[in-house]
Write a structure and sequence with these properties.
Order of helices and strands of chain A: EHEHEHEHHEHEHEEEEHEEHEHEHH
Strand content of chain A: 15-25%
Radius of gyration of chain B: 21 Å
Structural class of chain A: alpha/beta
CATH class of the largest domain in chain A: Alpha Beta
CATH superfamily of the largest domain in chain B: Thiamin diphosphate (ThDP)-binding fold, Pyr/PP domains
Shape of chain A: globular
Structural class of chain B: alpha/beta
Helix content of chain B: 40-55%
CATH architecture of the largest domain in chain B: 3-Layer(aba) Sandwich
Low-confidence stretches of chain A: none
Largest sheet of chain B: 5 strands, parallel
Mean pLDDT of chain A: 97
Helix content of chain A: 25-40%
CATH class of the largest domain in chain B: Alpha Beta
CATH architecture of the largest domain in chain A: 3-Layer(aba) Sandwich
Oligomer: heterodimer
Chain lengths: 329, 387
């Protein structure tokens, strides 16, 4: 059985279920307890679990993440809300030098089962400091898991998996997705396994590899391509680290043409890692070079017309796939 | 019997003990209403002497090439580590600094796994992956030295928060230097601990230098404890060369934290008798300054003086002798321990990454297989490329 709920409610259910299941799970962040989170993703939780387990905090990102690491080292499973993913920059030492390093550096004496929820992405002229997609930085940092849900099912299953994970996990959730509805399995124990991609649709002509908000854009592109007689596979990576390299190799072997796309800046983005992997390990399977699409190498601008010009959406994805299939590249 | 003093009602610690050689029994002793001033003083003195012997020995071995990396000594500051850790239980947490040998030893880690770690051996407490600057011992509640100045504040705030969430009466204590109080995480975490009334103790070792720059050049106040007032945290300033004074102030702070009274700030005025790191040419101060301070303030000499006739010269000498034997044993242990297997470099960053079928393990194993043939002392087909 499945129900249709919003992405936001899917994350709410994930936290409810994990907090009922494990008394060491607690939440902290700015504006989450009394206000319910800026996207309503925490509403009602303090009423069930109390204000000790759902904590409003000062605007102190370094302390929140640092305290999250300390609590995780000593028997708790904290979920820390970053308000906006952009503000992780205020806690980079805590994420990169502490959370990511401690288990390895201390010879596996400890674990850091902490989840960072980080609403990211471009929407509504939020501007340069509230719109970024920063996932590639953390994939580049050994010791962190990075998961990025694309729909309500992912939202619930990946958040539950992140909370249960013994590793520090960054959970990037696109702000545009919060109100979007989708089917979610009716099972308290439903989790999306970290490290495995999902095939959203199958098609033998070209593969579009993506994650997060861009999965929906890729599906729109695939529908348009289908009308033109081009069959596209869409891969939803779900997890960026550990990256599902097997799924990448398999899709290259099946479609021989791959477009990698994300809303994050193209240069230095995860698309480069994917393209490089396919070039190194799947060269003989490919009929054409891997194509990368991503945001332009500029900050996200304010004016709607500027904002909408600088990142890839369905028509651009369809165009790239079409050219790849028709060998126009 | 090792050492000439009694530890009433407690198992003796000996060189053979690899764990629990430091703070735990000491805490029981200091907490005991029956402990005499002499017994408390001897216990503190023993810890300080063990730290001094350890660090003077490490300095020698570092300069002799046995210890790679960076190492920072706390000689002159032993009274702070000894006095503060004496008030903690084994299940209380501490976070340390890059200058953390004293804290580690005082919290209870034995010399063997410590020295082996600094010698980069597989038997080190962190399997040779941490070294001096990143030594930790979770079995003793020692959440790690930290290579980042002010890195410990968040860990202590979190450990204190964790105690509240788990409804235990544990406390968490943060050691830090004056330099760390100029960083943002100091301010954010003190405020957080204050506003949430967390069981945290902030023990400042004001050793007058932030790396190579004198504290007078980096802040406009002489007493850093003033900063605690800005967060509504009660503070005390103590003579950081006097282990009794440190222990009394921290004891009060621990008591307050354990009974729900929230955080306390203890500023210990002390002095870093060595350079910032081993090998520091110390161009920023005169040797005469160091000699001037240490000739009147050496915490070990101060305790000796403080105990007066209650301390027999033979018993004082025996403490040194026991510490030297313990250190020699630890060095022998480290030297006879194997280096880590080069293949160990590729695992341990993620929980579960040593298990077959783990998705990270497959990726890490691929990197290992590609790189291991070129690793030092490991050739193709050697044991190191097993699995």
């Amino acid at each position: 059985m499945a129900r249709t709920i919003s992405f936001s409610d899917a994350t709410l259910e994930a936290m409810q279920e994990e907090m009922r299941r494990d008394p060491t799970v607690f939440l902290m962040g700015e504006d989450i307890a009394k206000q319910g989170g800026i996207f309503g993703q925490f509403k009602g939780l303090p009423q069930e679990f109390g204000f000790d387990r759902v904590r409003d905090t000062p605007i102190s990102e370094a302390a929140l993440v640092g305290a999250g690491v300390g609590a995780a080292l000593t028997g708790c499973r904290p979920v820390v809300d970053m308000h906006f993913a952009d503000f992780i920059t205020c806690a980079m030492d805590e994420v990169v030098n502490q959370a990511a390093k401690l288990r390895y550096m201390f010879g596996e004496q400890c674990a850091v089962p902490m989840t960072l929820r980080a609403p990211d992405g471009i929407t509504k002229s939020a501007g340069s400091q509230h719109s970024q997609s920063l996932e590639a930085w953390f994939v580049h940092t050994p010791g962190l898991e990075v998961v990025i849900p694309a729909d309500a099912e992912d939202a619930k299953g990946l958040l539950k998996a992140a909370i249960r994970s013994d590793n520090p996990t960054l959970y990037f959730e696109h702000k545009v997705l919060f109100p979007q509805k989708g089917a979610v399995p009716d099972d308290d124990d439903f989790v999306v396994p970290i490290g495995r991609a999902k095939t959203m649709r199958e098609g033998g002509d070209v593969a579009i590899v993506t994650y997060g908000i861009t999965v929906g854009r890729a599906l729109d592109a695939a529908a348009q391509l289908e009308a033109e007689g081009i069959e596209a596979t869409v891969i939803n990576l779900r997890t960026l680290w550990p990256l599902d390299y097997d799924a990448l190799a398999n899709v290259a072997a099946r479609t021989h043409r791959v477009v990698v796309v994300h809303e994050a800046v193209k240069i230095g983005g995860i698309g480069g890692e994917i393209a490089a992997f396919l070039g190194e390990h799947c060269f003989d399977d490919l009929d054409a070079p891997v194509v990368r699409l991503g945001a332009a190498h500029v900050p996200v601008p304010f004016a709607p017309i500027l904002q909408e010009a600088m990142y890839p959406k369905a028509p651009m994805i369809a165009d790239a796939a079409r050219k790849l299939v028709r060998r126009e590249l | 019997m090792r050492g000439a003093f009694q530890e009433p009602g407690l198992a003796r610690c000996s060189v053979a003990d690899t764990r629990d050689a430091g703070g735990c029994w000491l805490a029981k002793l200091l907490g005991s209403p029956d402990a005499t001033r002499r017994e408390r003083g001897l216990a503190l003195l023993r810890t300080m002497i063990r730290i001094r012997v350890l660090e003077e020995g490490l300095e020698k071995h570092f300069l002799g090439g046995d210890i790679p990396g960076f190492a920072h000594l706390s000689i002159g500051q032993e009274a702070v580590a000894a006095g503060a850790c004496a008030q903690l239980r084994r299940d209380d947490s501490i976070a340390s600094t890059h200058r953390g040998h004293g804290h580690t030893l005082a919290k209870g880690t034995a010399m063997r796994p410590m020295v082996a770690e600094l010698f980069a051996r597989s038997t080190g407490v962190c399997r040779g992956k941490g070294g001096s600057m990143h030594i930790a011992d979770f079995s003793m509640g020692m959440l790690g030295a930290n290579g980042v100045v002010a890195g410990g504040f968040g860990l202590v705030a979190g450990a204190a928060l964790s105690a509240v969430q788990r409804k235990t009466d544990q406390v968490a204590l943060c050691f830090f230097g004056d330099g760390a109080t100029n960083r943002g995480p100091f301010h954010e975490n003190l405020n957080l601990c204050a506003v949430w009334n967390l069981p945290a103790i902030f023990v400042l070792e004001n050793n007058r230098y932030a790396s190579t720059t004198s504290t007078a050049e980096t802040m406009k106040i002489a007493d850093v404890a003033l900063r605690a007032a800005g967060y509504g945290i009660p503070s005390r300033i103590v003579d950081g060369f006097d282990a009794f004074e440190v222990a009394d102030a921290v004891g009060e702070a621990v008591q307050r934290a354990r009974s729900g009274g929230g955080p306390t700030f203890v500023e210990c005025k002390t002095y870093r008798a060595r350079g910032h790191f081993i090998g520091d040419p110390e161009r920023y101060r005169e040797k005469s300054e160091v000699h001037g301070v240490m000739s009147v303030s050496d915490p070990i000499a101060r305790m000796q003086l403080s105990l007066g006739e209650a301390l027999e010269p033979a018993e004082f000498e025996q403490l040194w002798q026991a510490a030297r034997e313990e250190f020699a044993d630890a060095v022998a242990f480290a030297k006879s321990s194997p280096a880590p297997d080069a293949s160990d470099a590729f695992f341990g960053a993620f929980s579960g990454d040593r298990e077959e079928g783990n998705p990270v393990r497959r990726i890490e194993a691929r990197e290992r297989d590609a790189m291991l043939p070129f690793a030092p002392n490991v050739g193709p087909g050697s044991q190191g490329s097993g699995h």
